[in-house]
Amino acid sequence: MAAETMARLTWRRPWHRLSRRLVGTVAVALVVAGCAAEQANLSSTAPVLASAPRLTGAEKAAEREHRRLVASFGGAYRWAPAQKLLETVVARLVAATDRPSEGYRVTILNSPTVNAFALPTGNIYVTRGLLALANDDSEIAGVLAHEIAHVTANHAAARAELAQRSALVSRVVTEVLDNPKGGAQVADQSQRTIAGFSRAQELEADRIGIQTMAKAGFDPYGAVRFLASLGRNSGARTATTSDFLATHPSTPERIAQALSTARSIAAPGIGERRRAEYLTAIDGIAYGDDPVDGVVRDRRFLHPRLGITFTAPEGFSLDNTAQAVLGVSRSGEEALRLDAVEAPQVESLEEFIRSGWIEGVTAESIQPLSVNGLPAATATAAGTDWTFHLAAVRIDGSIYRLVLASRNNDAASATAFRSALMSLRRLSPGEIRAIRPLHIDIVTASSGDTPERLAMRMALSAGKLERFRVLNGLDPGNALRPGERYKIVVE
Predict the structure, then answer these.
(1) Are strands 438-444 and 374-382 parallel, antiparallel or unpaired?
(2) What's residue 332's pLDDT?
(3) pLDDT averages per 10-residue partition of the chain, 491 residues
(4) Confidence at residue 194, expressed as pLDDT on a 0 to 100 scale
(5) Residues 103-108: contacts with CB within 8 Å, 24+ apart?
(6) Measured distance CA(119)–CA(116) in Å, rounded
(7) 8 Å CB contact between 401 and 339
(8) In what order do the strands lie in the sheet with 105-109?
(9) Rounded CA gap, 6 and 321, in Å?
């Protein structure tokens, strides 16, 4: 299942040198691959018995990979009702597979992104963002059955084998036949083959998963409903074009196949949905960014632990990732990045900008200034297609780097950069105390309630109605049912 984005910005270590080619990149995809150990109680400090079996080297490595993977998504999220529900659903699904003796463990990841994936070890990972998007047991069963299908069909091993074979052919052409151009062509063709192979795997996992969930007694159309919600959620975040090298098929393609598979099993109306039980299990679950790692509120980013804030220019959307705070304009003609490095031993911020942080800086453009009482320096850099406005701001022991990349080197982009830079400041103690986490609240619709009325109760600064519909799987024409329960986001 494609990832929307990675985890929040941690701000704990220096960032790598910024390349012009990377500015504006705002999303990554995660495919089924790699290896991790079955989840263990990593926080346990109980002594190990002398008679207990010791971990082999491979298992120790897998354990480390598991820890790193969980940490990259913000750590494990503890929510007992949802954890119990997931384990119950997985047990039913596994019993309905061709390998009912296989062991699986489920980890909820503390990430607001909508994502789920499985590793060959039987570890299944589900983000709390995905739990917030699903609306009943059958929808989450569709997700879990899809991931289990990846494991039972050995997709990760098959993909790795194909990649290794393609790399070998490319190397032979390049080195043995002394034909670098031919090797590059083979590499390009193999990349396209692998991408197509992965898309075929996703569709196969959908088909197997729907058959499995139906056999386990769940409504097979739950998979269709969740894929529709996934499409709404992606559309609400950003408009994307199709990518031939995407590792996952387009959502419409998946919905069409899922609907065909479900219809081949039975007409709608069969199997369990258990909407009430599912909503009870996620009632109160965290929503959106974890304030510990900074939060995005509309165009504003706030980090209570570091005590800083900044506001993106009008028309930008922000995303808090593991590497930086990233922003992109509606037109896609401008991109924004804010990250931090430990302050190096340089004489001045002007010298820091000259040190090669970003290529193409014009020396005469480097200027010192003060940003809300903080020492800073700005400059511009010219690329082939982009112009870069950049600033370095010293706050305590760190240097914050702000870059705005624009395809149009005009006064408007310079003004947008200036507004973002001058918004960077320290948070007051009162502002820090006012930053509270968001969570899902389950409410019951009364007679006369409308999506618009319940959406007004959402603790969001913009897009309340659209987000309410996405969270509850509602199309614009859908009315609310009195007595039915719905999700809203509150502080």
Answers:
(1) unpaired
(2) 85
(3) 35 32 28 26 31 49 74 88 97 94 91 86 90 97 93 65 44 45 46 54 91 97 95 65 46 91 94 97 93 85 92 89 83 90 80 84 92 95 87 92 87 92 96 91 96 94 90 94 96 88
(4) 36
(5) 103/38, 104/148, 104/151, 105/38, 105/39, 106/39, 106/144, 107/39, 107/70, 107/76, 108/76, 108/77, 108/78, 108/79, 108/82, 108/83
(6) 11
(7) yes
(8) 105-109, 123-127, 116-118
(9) 6
Q: 185: how many CB neighbours lie within 10 A of its CB? A: 13
Q: How far apart are CA 213 and CA 139, in angstroms?
A: 10
Residue with tokens 């320096």: 377
pLDDT digits 0-9 by tens, 56-69: 555 566 677 778 77
β strands within 333-461, DSSP E:
334-342, 367-371, 374-382, 387-395, 398-406, 425-426, 438-444
pTM comes to 0.69
**For strand 105-109 and strand 123-127, is the pairing parallel, antiparallel, or unpaired?**
parallel
Rounded-to-integer distance, Cα 280 and Cα 246, Å: 36
Q: What is the pLDDT of residues 326-372, one digit of tens each?
A: 898 888 889 999 999 887 677 789 989 888 778 888 889 999 999 99
Q: How far apart are CA 115 and CA 419, in angstroms?
A: 34
Whole-number pLDDT of residue 160: 53
What is the rounded CA–CA span in Å between residue 114 and residue 133? 8
CB 119 within 8 A of CB 458: no
Give the pair of three-digit tokens for residue 127.
């983000």
Residue with tokens 């507004």: 419
Pairwise CA distance, residues 13 & 3, whole Å: 24
- Angle among Cα 115, 247, 203 to the nearest 5 degrees reads 80
Look at residue 437 and give its three-state secondary structure: coil
For residue 249, the model assigns a pLDDT of 63
Contacts of 60 (CB under 8 A, 6+ apart): none
- Other residues' Cβ atoms within 10 Å of the Cβ of residue 268: 11
3-state secondary structure of 301: strand
Tell me what pLDDT residue 362 has.
87
In order, the DSSP letters of 82-146 are HHHHHHHHHHHHHHTSS-TT---EEEEES-SS--EEE-TTSEEEEEHHHHHH--SHHHHHHHHHH
DSSP per position, 56-90: PHHHHHHHHHHHHHHHHTTSB---HHHHHHHHHHH
Q: Which two tokens stand for residue 417?
A: 């950069």
Rounded to an integer, what distance in angstroms lies between the CA atom of residue 272 and that of residue 403? 51
Residues 6+ apart with CB under 8 A from 147: 1, 116, 117, 118, 124, 205, 209
Q: Say if residues 467 and 420 touch (Cβ distance below 8 Å).
A: no
**pLDDT of res. 57:** 56
